[in-house]
Amino acid sequence: MSNAKGFSLIELLIASAVGLLAIGIVGSVFLSGYSAANKRSLELMLQQDVNDALRTIKEDILRAGYNSGGSSSLVISGATSVVYTQSNCLAYTYETSSGQKYAQIKLNGDDLKYKLGADIVTVANACSGTGSSLVYKKQISVDDFIIAPMVISSASSTSQIINIKLIASLRNDSNINTNKSIDVKTRNWN
């Protein structure tokens, strides 16, 4: 008989089992890290998109009522304030270098729509029609758009503080959601 040195079948099976267990643990840690990073990436995308939508709304509302040549702020026909509010809708007008523009921001189903145009708007049609989406509607569902105006007045003028709350989630994972709000004080241009 020869003195062959090597591993026995039992030793080889134990070594293989330990190796497979180590590979399984490393793979599991990698996959859970990848899943957490992917979820965080989606959360950040949602937060960024909602923040961008709120920033756009705020910047546009700050223009509401601007009238370069007039002695008073522009107001939508029939409205009592610079920003006309209805349930889930804002509408206002302002002057640009190309003329008077009317803007509308409203919740349309599960999408937040923004419309800017030169059409004559009254309170009767201020929140009608559709526009372009303020969020990436293929991935983001707007669950609610809440508008809470509050009138503030002093001896010389009246204005508004508008609280806007935007609640959104991902279309393919409603567990990833956000709830943001901002306060916008309308300007008096007179």
From TrEMBL:
Coiled coil stretches, renumbered: none
PROSITE patterns attached to this UniProt entry: PROKAR_NTER_METHYL
Domain of life the protein comes from: Bacteria
Transmembrane segments: 12-37
Statement: the UniProt record of this protein carries the keyword Membrane: yes
Organism: Photobacterium angustum
InterPro entries: N_methyl_site, Prepilin_Pept-dep_B_prd
Name of the protein in question: Prepilin-type N-terminal cleavage/methylation domain-containing protein
UniProt keyword terms in alphabetical order: Membrane, Transmembrane, Transmembrane helix
